[in-house]
């Protein structure tokens, strides 16, 4: 019992600090709060620039709006010290529950963390995500938030770390490995799409590399059919498990259980093969996203995804 309590406490602290999930109540994952130890960070509420509408052909998404931060606001974001983060509040369109924004956008193939809606509902609520400065994708002289699928960007606050603050490395991180951002904001089963920059990082990595997912597999969590991972087309409804056009990477019917250390490991070579196969059967001939989906036979005991990294 003592060991169990220690494991549970450790998992909760990790999830709170790194914004990769939070404790669940009645089987439902709760929205993550701000990182631990950042209550005294200086808060700067940024003025939202007037949005610019962009065609789907340019962005790859429907009902796209670009919010471009320039000048002093861009400088504040780009010069923010390590550990600083953006606090972003938004609202999905009704009856969606899927991807609705990219935090940092340069072009159709280079964009930052993907945010998603909570659930399919006629009365969506505001939700907030916290994204570290080091995970943002910046342009040369601007920082642009891409909002799509008729979602609404409500406000953006920069939380600036003081000079005395030293970020604590994620204890899961392997020296020399590349961090892959866990998609924030999605409270449906699964975690949604990886960012465009992470897609490029993974698909251009050496075949000998591995992509590692870390879960909090403890006594109270089931480990049956834990993770599905595979390519996704531009259409939000067309992905593995729902459409015949999808291809999962590997595993028993696509599901991969974690090992005793809470890890699920994929070979980069297998991921590239899955993307190649998906392109062959896609009606639009294009698969440019990788999607995470995980769960368990008992949703109330579903594990949490803590961290993802690419090991060369």
Strand order of the largest sheet: 4-5-12-7-10
CATH topology of the largest domain: Jelly Rolls
Strand content: 25-35%
For the sheet with most strands, the description reads: 5 strands, antiparallel
The chain-level mean pLDDT equals: 82
Rg from alpha-carbon coordinates: 19 Å
Keywords:
312 residues, Jelly Rolls, 2 domains, five-stranded antiparallel beta sheet, 16% helix, globular
Tell me what the structure shows.
This protein has helices spanning 2-18, 56-59, 71-78, 196-203, 268-281, and strands at residues 24-25, 28-29, 42-46, 52-54, 64-69, 85-91, 99-103, 105-107, 110-111, 114-116, 127-132, 143-147, 152-160, 178-180, 192-193, 210-215, 227-233, 263-267, 287-294, 305-311. It has 312 residues and is α+β, with helices and mostly antiparallel strands. It folds into two domains: 42-160, Sandwich (Jelly Rolls); 169-311, Jelly Rolls, CATH 2.60.120. The strands form six sheets. The chain has a five-stranded antiparallel sheet with strand order 4-5-12-7-10. The radius of gyration is 19 Å and the shape is globular. The N and C termini lie far apart (38 Å).
Compile the SSE list and pairings.
Blueprint: H1 2-18, E1 24-25, E2 28-29, E3 42-46, E4 52-54, H2 56-59, E5 64-69, H3 71-78, E6 85-91, E7 99-103, E8 105-107, E9 110-111, E10 114-116, E11 127-132, E12 143-147, E13 152-160, E14 178-180, E15 192-193, H4 196-203, E16 210-215, E17 227-233, E18 263-267, H5 268-281, E19 287-294, E20 305-311
Antiparallel strand pairs: 1-2, 3-13, 4-5, 5-12, 6-11, 6-13, 7-10, 7-12, 8-9, 14-20, 15-19, 16-18, 16-20, 17-19
């Amino acid at each position: 019992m003592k060991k169990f309590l220690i494991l549970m406490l450790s998992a909760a602290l990790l999830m709170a600090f790194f914004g990769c999930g939070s404790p669940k109540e009645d089987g439902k994952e709760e929205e993550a709060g701000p990182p631990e130890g950042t209550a005294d960070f200086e808060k700067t509420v940024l003025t939202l620039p007037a949005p610019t509408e962009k065609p789907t052909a340019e962005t790859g998404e429907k009902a796209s709006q670009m919010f471009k931060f320039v000048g002093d606001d861009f400088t504040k974001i780009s010069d923010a010290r390590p550990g600083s983060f953006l606090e972003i509040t938004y609202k999905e369109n009704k009856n969606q529950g899927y991807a609705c924004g990219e935090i940092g956008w340069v072009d159709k193939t280079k964009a930052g963390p993907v945010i998603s809606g909570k659930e399919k509902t006629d009365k969506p609520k505001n939700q907030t995500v916290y994204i570290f400065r080091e995970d943002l994708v910046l342009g040369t002289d601007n920082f642009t938030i891409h909002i799509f699928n008729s979602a609404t960007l409500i406000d953006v606050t920069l939380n600036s770390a003081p000079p005395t603050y030293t970020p604590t490395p994620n204890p899961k991180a392997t020296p020399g490995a590349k961090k892959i951002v866990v998609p924030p904001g999605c409270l449906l089963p699964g975690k949604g799409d990886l960012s465009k920059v992470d897609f490029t990082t993974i698909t251009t990595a050496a075949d000998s590399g591995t992509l590692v997912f870390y879960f909090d597999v403890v006594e109270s969590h089931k480990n049956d059919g834990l993770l599905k991972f595979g390519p996704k087309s531009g259409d939000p409804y067309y992905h593995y498990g729902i459409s015949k056009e999808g291809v999962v990477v590997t595993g028993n019917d696509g599901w991969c259980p974690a090992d005793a250390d809470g890890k699920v490991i994929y070979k980069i070579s297998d991921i590239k093969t899955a993307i190649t196969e998906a392109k062959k059967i896609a009606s639009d001939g294009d698969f440019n996203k990788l999607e995470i989906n995980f769960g368990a036979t008992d949703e109330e005991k579903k594990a949490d995804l803590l961290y993802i990294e690419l090991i060369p």
